[in-house]
Amino acid sequence: MRGKLRLGVNIDHVATVRNARGSGYPDPVRAALLAAEAGADGITAHLREDRRHITDADIERLSTRLPIPLNLEMAATQEMLAIALRHRPHAVCIVPEKREERTTEGGLDAAGQFDHLAPIVAALRENGSRVSLFIEPEAAQIDAAIRLGAPVIELHTGSYAELEGDARATELKRLADAAALAAKNGIEVHAGHGLTFDNVVPIAAIPQLAELNIGHFLIGEAIFDGLAPVVQRMRALMDAAR
Fold it and tell me: Which of 19, 22, 53, 110 is most buried (CB neighbours < 10 A)?
């Protein structure tokens, strides 16, 4: 199932820099538009409970100004559900969230939280958003996604990104096996977290993957090289892997 691998650019940390000074710049919406011009296929934004980076106003503006799909990352809470239902983004990725974490740590326990997630997934789907679950590459989590009726999963690549040598190769196989299992059961497979120029190619080469979502690294590299060239380089690496 090879073909063009979509690139979703997460613009959360443009908002992190903006919020450090409480000013109006750098503007994450401007970053999203630049990323789209440079070849991004979608924009990802995580609206956290504590609003540490992306804000409600950002989601409002992204919802009305983007020429490419918006993927709203959110925790499975009633507050976030209400926001997603109001804005009706193209896609909603449900992620685990803890106030004290620096970034999303691990995948969602879709199996353990099945009863809590079921009505949220159903409401989002009925409202027209494509629901994704950010999970670990585990058969039990994929089975839960199938039973929940989620059309998409996003595999957590954070462990792969942190490991080296044989341990990384083992984790890569685990990701590839999970992608194959999900695709076999009719689920579209995405992946993301911790991906860089140096480690993206083996992930991009997994034939069942349809999309990678990458943020922190791209925004960091943009400080040195500019956002458009960085997005274009990542796009080229992903294309070469296919």
Answer: 110
